[in-house]
Design goal:
Its EC number is 4.99.1.9. Belongs to the ferrochelatase family. With 360 residues, this protein is of the alpha/beta class. It folds into 3 domains: 12-48 and 87-179 and 325-349, Rossmann fold, CATH 3.40.50.1400; 52-82, no CATH class; 184-318, Rossmann fold, CATH 3.40.50. It contains 14 helices and 9 strands. Residues 1-11, 13-33 and 343-360 have low confidence and may be disordered.
């Protein structure tokens, strides 16, 4: 497949251009059945097992085909049991995709269909690309549900999509959104959650509270090669802290993998212990690297980090996840519209719904 990468100064974006096709009689550039004005929204996420029986194949896929030891497998199963037996990530991702598609369609005045694919469990990204190609859309936007770019995260999703697209030369250009870590709406949504969570702390703890902005750790060798991920995380944290008027805050990483290589730190539990020694009264965890409730939030923060905080004598609270909340859906819709070359103003002028009406 021929690839052309386009950069947009307003957001982190890249476009993968499919094989050129002669123009069809209907003006869509396709010569087969399909909806000539259809926009495909390729939504990519990490994935999660839907039952405890799926944990082993899921974990094996994460480990590049190497089955986990019985001890590692049981530990992961126990974590899922601790949050109720399964993560809600699958349902949240599907809802996010549906709501973004509905919002974009309403503003753009064109049909938008979401195609969801996961990195480590079915339906895989390749499955979503196959379904997308079969729908014969005119335009396509690729959205990875991760705010900060890394070669160890977003790039892997995009590579999986590119490899699948090579098998479907009939597919249109796919314009990828690389990151949205500093999008004003994303920053504002997180800031609102920080403010409300701080306000909910007991009065005697609020004054000495520290906000810890967390993101998933990545292997240190990736960082050493100049990966932008730590800079993106720091930028998100700084902007959210400024918007929320937070004076005391730290950045920490969580959920590091178990490999021979070191992983990016400091770990959130180490930061919590240090804050306890420094006399902090409370910690508020704000997971800026995650956009939905899942195991790393519901267990690693809500259970593990909370326990460490209590042992250190600190009150603990976590900001609510963005999930499919309206303010976050607005952010994702803005990103998609930008990749389609239509701002909110232009979409409204084209006959879209008034802003704020999502058609759900």
């Amino acid at each position: 497949m021929d690839e052309a990468v386009n950069r947009n100064p307003k957001a982190g974006v890249a476009g993968v251009r499919g094989t050129a096709r002669p123009a069809a009689q209907d003006g869509t550039g396709r010569d087969g059945p399909g909806r000539g004005d259809l926009v495909a929204l390729l939504v990519m996420a990490y994935g999660t097992p839907q039952s405890l029986d799926e944990v082993e194949p899921y974990y094996t896929h994460i480990r590049h085909g190497r089955p986990p030891t019985p001890e590692l497998l049981q530990e992961l199963i126990d974590r899922y049991k601790a949050i109720g037996g399964k993560s809600p990530l699958h349902e949240i991702t599907e809802e996010q995709a549906r709501r973004v598609a509905t919002t974009v369609a309403g503003r753009l005045g064109r049909p938008v269909e979401p195609f969801v694919g996961y990195l480590h469990i079915a339906p895989f990204i390749a499955d979503a690309v196959e379904r997308m190609a079969a729908a014969r859309p005119r335009d396509a936007v690729g959205l990875v549900l991760a705010p900060q770019y890394s070669a160890a995260s977003v790039a892997l999703y995009q590579q999986a999509a590119r490899e699948a697209l090579e098998r479907h030369p009939e597919a249109p250009a796919v314009h990828f959104i690389d990151h949205f870590h500093n999008h004003p709406g994303f920053v504002a949504a997180l800031a609102r959650r920080v403010e409300s969570t701080l306000a909910g702390l007991p009065a005697d703890r609020r004054e000495g509270a520290v906000v810890i902005f967390t993101a998933h750790s990545i292997p240190q060798p990736v960082v050493d090669r100049g990966d932008p991920y730590p800079r993106h995380v720091e930028e998100t944290a700084a902007k959210v802290a400024a918007a929320a008027g937070v004076g005391r805050w730290r950045v920490a990483y969580q959920s590091a993998g178990r490999t021979a290589d070191p992983w990016l730190g400091p770990d959130v539990t180490d930061v919590i212990r240090q804050l306890g020694r420094e006399g902090a009264r409370a910690v508020v965890a704000c997971p800026v690297g995650f956009v939905a409730d899942h195991l790393e939030v519901l267990y690693d923060l809500d259970i593990e980090a909370r326990q460490v905080a209590e042992e250190a004598g600190l009150a603990f609270a976590r900001t609510p996840s963005l999930n499919a909340d309206a303010d976050f859906i607005e952010v994702l819709a803005d990103l998609v519209l930008d990749r389609l070359g239509a701002t909110r103003h232009e979409a409204a002028a084209a006959g879209a719904r008034p802003e704020g009406q999502e058609g759900q």
